Amino acid sequence: MFPLPATEFPALTNLALTMEGHIEPDLVLILDAFKHAPFLRSLKLVLRDCSQLILETTFPWHQLTTLQLSLPLTSDVAHAILVQCTSLERTTFSHILECDIDTQPPPPLPPALLPELRDFEFGWDQGSQTDLPPTPVLLDLHARSSHFALEHLALSGQLLTPAELLSVLRTVPTLETLIVSGCACISDELFEMLTANEPSTTLPELRRLEIHPITSMLDGNNVATMTESLFEKANNGDPSVMFPSLIQLCLYRGDGRFVNGKWETFAQEVEDRIASLRETGFLVDRYHR
Question: What phi, psi does 58 have (nearest 5°)?
């Protein structure tokens, strides 16, 4: 492939590239073509494969305020990209792999490096045919060692335990929205930890918490008790609880059955407890809006 002219995009602000097949040999040339796009602020890149070659480009990462990467990257390569995106406000990594066992983990990301970062979505492409990584790769990025002023955090497909999730949350005390989707930590143990009377982690600014899927494999009484507890504690205004400012809890169902025109996942008495909180507006349920 011949190098593309790098001076044809003087007014470009948003760039979206979706490339099929094996294009790694050309990836550097393609990205280099935009190194002199002075007003470029947003990049969306979708690839089937990728490697450390992406780090050889002279692409102006430092200009970006929005970055969406849907491509297989090891956490050390993701780290190397992030440290160049010093103006970043919103970012999505949707297909992160763990480092090789012999690879030295990347150092912590200093908050001063990404002072404007507010929105971070981190997940695994669950449509991939590749197995999930055997360790929680979010921790490979050492997010737990850094403190960012994030307002929105979305985690999907992560093999985090409940304790590891809380470890991550300690680094982001400014969160206003938290989404936990398809993660291994969604369990009765997590629900108990979220309603602890003396929590080890507090998110004083959190307004919206979204957890899904909620399935019949969980204890319905624990789900109902968690919902009731979070509602009561938020309404009491007690600053010592985990989510003192919570105004909306979203528990999207993953399975169930229709009974008399209503979707039910748990026993009727549990569904009645959940329904009473739905009526307050505090609880949002995908099948009961």
Answer: -100, 25
- Pairing mode, if any, of strands 262-264 and 257-259? antiparallel
Predicted confidence (pLDDT) at residue 79 exceeds the cutoff of 60 = yes
Read out DSSP for 183-252? Answer: -TT-SHHHHHHHT-SS-S---TT--EEEEEEE-TTS-HHHHHHHHHHHHHHHHHT-TTSS-TT--EEEEE
Tell me the mean pLDDT in the region 21-35.
80
Q: Are strands 283-284 and 257-259 parallel, antiparallel or unpaired?
A: unpaired
Amino acid identity of residue 116, one-letter, is E
As a whole number of angstroms, the distance between CA 24 and CA 30 comes to: 10
Map tokens 């739905």 to a residue. Answer: 278
Residue 233 predicted with pLDDT over 70? yes
Domains belonging to the chain, first-starting first, are 42-284 (3.80.10)
The dihedral through the CA atoms of 145, 140, 161, 153 has a sign that is positive
Integer Cα distance of 109 and 149 in angstroms: 13
List C-alpha distances in Å: 44 to 41, 100, 123, 138, 157. Answer: 10, 26, 16, 21, 21
The whole-angstrom separation of Cα 191 and Cα 162 is 9
Mean pLDDT, range 133-162, rounded to an integer: 64
